[in-house]
Write a structure and sequence with these properties.
Elements lengths: L3 E5 L3 H13 L3 E5 L2 H11 L3 E4 L8 H10 L7 E6 L6 H8 L3 E4 L7 H11 L1
Helix pairs in contact: 2-3
Protein name: Response regulator
InterPro entries: Bact_response_regulator (IPR050595), CheY-like_superfamily (IPR011006), Sig_transdc_resp-reg_receiver (IPR001789)
Keywords: Phosphoprotein
């Protein structure tokens, strides 16, 4: 059985696409549509992988990464920022906040799972 993935994403279309692609690859998906819910579900479920949008309604993904890394989440958890923020320095800012990797939106449905798994293997 594949790993459990928590997706923290407020856009329903993006959530649907990510969930669909990952479930098709046999991952177990937990969905959170905001940061507070994402933090709660992360601590209740201890997913192996967390995909975080940076631009969320209640707190940004950088803050969520930071809170996850400093509030008892297992060090083995892989956190990946999946975001349309693609300005210079955004990737570095995500890594600095605690993310292990960074994938830009729009995602490519043909390569997304491979890209994500590459980040996990490289951790």
């Amino acid at each position: 059985m594949k790993s459990t993935i928590l997706i923290i994403e407020d856009n329903e279309q993006n959530m649907y696409m990510l969930s669909y692609l990952l479930e098709k690859s046999n991952y177990i998906i937990i969905k959170a549509f905001n940061g507070v819910e994402g933090l709660r579900l992360a601590h209740e479920n201890n997913p192996q992988i967390i995909l975080i949008d940076i631009q969320l309604p209640d707190m940004d993904g950088y803050e969520i990464c930071n809170k996850l890394r400093h509030n008892g989440l297992p060090k083995t958890t892989t956190i990946i920022a999946v975001t349309s923020y693609a300005m210079g320095g955004d990737k570095e800012k995500a890594i600095e906040a605690g993310a292990d990797g960074y994938l830009e939106k729009p995602i490519n449905p043909d390569t997304f799972v491979i890209q994500m798994e590459s980040i996990i293997k490289g951790k």
